[in-house]
Design brief:
alpha+beta, 4 helices
């Protein structure tokens, strides 16, 4: 296993990376949450070392954000929806905000909190859920959640990787 501190990492050439990303995305018609494994990532960047994880089977996901937003059409496949929200400041705010997911039977697979500007009173939450925003139960859940937020943004909708079935 390679130690990250011993890798020869120099300043990134962002113009080359942008050109590679543009070429790569122009060639894609579908995206999953696992597109950037193995050879796909090597199209974009040089891989400096393999197997650097400290737990076998660990996976790192990369989220590339930009415009235009590419949203897959709802089909009979598994999807992941990623979103970000900031709660209104009130008692039991998180419980209230997430209750719509439970009521509608939507599985939240990721919930990470980040303080706003080093505040202990305001937090952003980064989430993933199983489902597509056009599914009625997901749409109802997110509409309910939105009533409890100051800010809300969908970051992306993409086909779930087969890796998630392991």
């Amino acid at each position: 296993m390679a130690e990250i501190s011993k890798l020869n990492i120099s300043e990134l050439d962002f113009d080359t990376i942008k050109a590679n990303l543009k070429d790569y995305f122009n060639s894609q018609t579908e995206f999953t949450d696992h597109n950037f494994g193995g050879s796909a990532i090597s199209v974009l960047l040089d891989i400096l070392a393999y197997n650097i994880e400290d737990e076998k089977g660990n996976v790192t996901r990369f989220m590339l954000m930009g415009r235009p937003i590419i949203q897959p059409e709802l089909k009979k496949e598994k999807y992941i929806t990623s979103f970000l929200f900031k709660l209104k400041s009130k008692p039991a705010a998180l419980y209230s905000a997430l209750s719509g997911l439970a009521v509608n039977g939507v599985n939240l697979t990721k919930l990470q909190s980040y303080p706003e500007k080093n505040s202990f009173t305001s937090y952003f939450f980064l989430c993933d859920l199983d489902g597509h925003i056009d599914e009625p139960k997901v749409k109802r859940s997110l509409e309910d959640l939105n009533h409890h937020t100051e800010e809300f943004a969908i970051l992306g909708i993409y086909k779930a990787s087969e890796f998630r079935n392991k």
